[in-house]
Design a protein that fits this description.
- Strands 3-2-1-4-5-6 form a six-stranded parallel β-sheet, with helices on both faces. Strands 7-8-11-9-10 form a five-stranded antiparallel β-sheet, with helices on one face.
- The longest helix has 15 residues.
- It contains seven helices and eleven strands.
- The chain is α/β, with parallel strands linked by helices and 238 residues long.
- It is elongated, with a radius of gyration of 24 Å.
- The N and C termini lie far apart (68 Å).
Length: 238
Amino acid sequence: MYVIITSGGRTGATLASMLISMDHEVKVIEWRKEVLSRIHHELPTEAIVEGDPLDLSILELAGIRHADVIAATTVSDEANLTLCYIARELYGINRTIARVNDPRNAWLFDDKYHVDVAVNQAELLASLIQEEMSLGDMITLLKLRRGRYSLVEEKIPAGARAIGTAIKDLDLPDHCVIAAIIRKGEVMIPRGVTTLEEGDEVLAVTDRDGAASLAGLFSAKQSEQNGKARNGEKSLHG
């Protein structure tokens, strides 16, 4: 895959390093002298194109005519929108990704400017906080398909509803699949008859509704929670 990244700032340089390590062809366009000085120590020289990404001759020097993806990661929302628009309208780039710097401008990053994916860091953080608050101890490991699906992991605690139940009897939603179980340090490929045990670490691919169902199944039974609460009250009152 050929990717053009239109800024060598921290976001752009980190993205470039990750893509290069995955054997993708990457060009980073950068115009600031101090940034160029830094990224020449972090990235291969052949991956760096010096110049203004809004200059069409620079974009063409970077190989935009045969690029698969453009990632507009400058610190200017106006520049990022313009770059996505140019990439699609003039060069027919199949995939455009834009960084949203000011959350108040997020509404602009849509089809009319040919933005396929808008990366709004404030929105991502808010979403992650909300997700962690609502799903308890469940950890989101990876977002899939633009965030609709996730790879999640949770360890089954004592008293969980799912303990002793076969996977086929869990009544999981259609968009929730248990992909693996780590039990006593060993990875197990789960089958329908596999019974869950306390301490199992469960990895599942699921949407948000499925994650909520898993969180319910992997939480302690209400009666046990109430019993613990009553015991706590008794101890408090002597």
